[in-house]
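ok so i was messing around last nite and threw this chain in just to see what happens. nothing serious, just curious
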Amino acid sequence: MTSAKRPFTTQQLDVLSKTLRSALVSDILDGLGLWHQCLAPGLVPLDPGATLIGYAFPVSSEAVTQVPDEPYVGLLRALDSICADEVWVVSCDTDAALWGELTSTACRSRGARGAVCEGFVRDIWMVRNIGFPVFSRGASPKDANGRMEIISHSASVRVSDVEVFRDDLIVADDDGVAVVPGALVEKVVSAALDKSSAESLFRAAVAEGELPSAAYQRYGVLWSAGRWSCSPGLPPLASSPGTNCRGTPPQRGRRASCHRCG
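result:
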């Protein structure tokens, strides 16, 4: 089941996890003038090579210095609220672990796709064993109880100077974490996949001996990412077979004028 805010099904997200890359997404966002949609470098997967793509579930937290009378109240409310295809996104300035195996198990049971933690995690080998993708800045054995409290969820959270809203698309891999604003998800994903196809053509041409400059002129993959859409802020127009987005036949050997042009 899809919606305007969540255009991709679970199965489609699974496919995207094998084809979409954070670098491609970042390029397209740059082309749209959104230069600050990537979280700070250093967020890495517990399992190298893992890819995480899903809709953001923002969680706000704060550092504390004493154990509350009733522990984990905010955490349990958030764990009860996360939905299928969502990615737990949290940030807190603490040396305690923001995530662990039990939280991974709880989220996985609700169909969540993974977690992005601007901070530390623990239970590393146990999280790896259950196959739940988690991105973090490292490990800490310290429990969050008495050191960090979840104060709200589902609205937004600021991570690395990026404001992350629910239904934004998280694209995370070994290169880092990109955040696609919810209103642009379909457009950015489509452009990123088309750019990937053009890169493959460039790669094959150069491997076969074509000069990089000639391959560049043909496929335009080293061009500004902004060239991958016809008009900034607008989706490409529908086209008929054999025509580009403007409804005219593409010219052989010319750089594509948009991410759907041949």
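not much to say yet. The chain has two domains: 40-180, 184-262.
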